[in-house]
Fold each of these.
Amino acid sequence: MRNRVLGLLLGALLLAGGAARAQTGEYAAPGFPMLPRRPLPAPAKEPPKLVSPVLPRFWHEPDPGRQSEGRTRFFEFVSGQARFPAGARPTAARPNAPLPTGRLFVRVLVRPDGSVRQPPRVTKRELARSESDYPPAALRALDAEAQRVLGALRFVRSKALEDSLVVPIRFIAE
């Protein structure tokens, strides 16, 4: 009888204690360290993919009016999408670093289906100062922005094997 009462009392204590600590993550087996639970980092938000309208191949146009119109549409798209990248601005570590301003010349290869061969290549930089005056990360940010905008271009289909353009992009800090 005494064992029975002791068993009921022990069972009641166990039930009143709630869930075991091993089930809640508060307990580790002997010899195993307890690792703190950290919240998972939020997934990185990717900016929406840039989509270009289908642009005419204005460099093949024999009519000067249509060629000018196509060139205007092309540069309106490029200038409307290109932004001065945040990575090219001075950081807390280098607050007095100069802003890289000037032009990048980017070579774009256009396939017969109208897509651009990736990635467009920066062939020349004409900056306000020597390239050695700017942090390398700032120059990489300018290159990446030019490649992002020009890599999204789409053109009408053509019978030409592949067309090559050199596009100037001007970056001016706002």
Note: Residues 54-90+97-171 form a domain with the Fusion Protein Consisting Of Minor Coat Protein, Glycine Rich Linker, Tola, And A His Tag; Chain: A; Domain 2 fold (CATH 3.30.1150).
Amino acid sequence: MLETARALKQGLRPVPQRQAGSGQASNETMRSGESDSRRLLAGKTLALLFEKPSLRTRVSFDVGMRQLGGDCIYVSPAEVGLGTREPVEDVARVMSRYVDCIAARTFAQETVEQLARWADVPVINALSEGEHPCQALADLLTILEHKGRLEGVSLAYIGDGNNVARSLCLAAGMMGMEFRIAAPQGYELDETTVSRAGELARGSGGGIVCVREAMEAAAGAEPPPPSSALANWSSCGSSSRLNKNSSSST
């Protein structure tokens, strides 16, 4: 998936390894791949169903759909009243009749899970208080671009064990990475996530390390890529805890 994402980001579809031959054939294949990538989602429509405002998530999904030949519509909280004006299951059924995919940015994890349960089309978790898988996927893609690999990379995370930390922990476990998290007492990753990530890591050759001290988590971790961005964790669905730990960030 990450290799495909990297190829699409470069404007090319993944193409078979070319055999010895002329450079012209290779150039034609690359041009064909670029043309194909702009038609990958032709005729497909993504609905952005958001309970909370967004900058990067909304723009990236919208632009990405258009670059791949599809369309994108934004549905604001006031237009739907998800779970209040209209039950979640009704919203899922109705939207399934009009669009090909739903990207939901919700407060409660249960809401996005209900959407997935009742919808007849794929539902992407674009952020919930439980997880932030798209952020984790983007982070791993950035590491892959700069390091050339994921397996064996040691990734240190210092801060609250929130939705971003959960998704990164699980993603790292899937990809054979060592995930090292340092979180203050009372803000650790939940045991369920650590257990699931540990199982994934055992199968992929990775590892999960939970510690209290930042320096211990950072020991042996590889340096971040240039110009890496940090986002305050209160923007990731945990603003209710901000007063308890205002210095935490991701």
Note: The domain at 133-222 is CATH 3.40.50.1370 (Rossmann fold).
